[in-house]
Amino acid sequence: DGFYPTGVKTTGDAMEPSAALLKAVLVNGATAMEGYVSNGDPIEPPPSSRQGWGRINLAASVPLGAAGTRAAGIPTSFIAFDRLSTPFTADGQRYSVCLNVTGSTEELRATLAWTDPATAVLSDGSLVNDLDLKLMHGAKQLWPVPGLEDRVNNVERAVWSEPDLGRYYLEVKAQSLQGGSQAYAIAVTGHVSHVADATTEDACLGPRPPSPPSLPPPPP
Question: Considering the entire predicted model, what is its pTM?
Fold first, then answer.
């Protein structure tokens, strides 16, 4: 109905979101549930088999109201990228987003979702098309931990509490496309803005410093 991106209904901003964007938005704002399981242990934090990504929290997923008038706990900014008409078409393709965090009192959240195609035959539930989400700040990769990339789910969420101010680089990569082209969507919330003219890692974060020269070999 035109509430994005201002939070106020504006007829000219009306859009029809994809299924992937709806999922990304809901998961991005979901709140971890607390409590205990039947044996008395605390419930696992999301994502988990018991609570999934948490309890849906529409106020945190789709901030409404003009900026500066929102209640505590509602994100300052909400940014969406619906890549329905510009899908990945080959392995290794990337889509880059540069973000500028201007406040550290809110979590920086970014969620990637896509509708994985059905398999041609019965399968073990593995992904047909596998996409990866990466979040970086400076030279440090915040998400995922290298070597622990998600190869199971068609939703990936990065949450960074009390983020440092400055630029963050968000990247989606087509790790493996076995079922043809793949559309996807990204939802971002926090005290953050989109730096639209920085479309590469170097443009967003600046070139990485050169590696130090190697030490000479020890004398014989």
Answer: 0.89
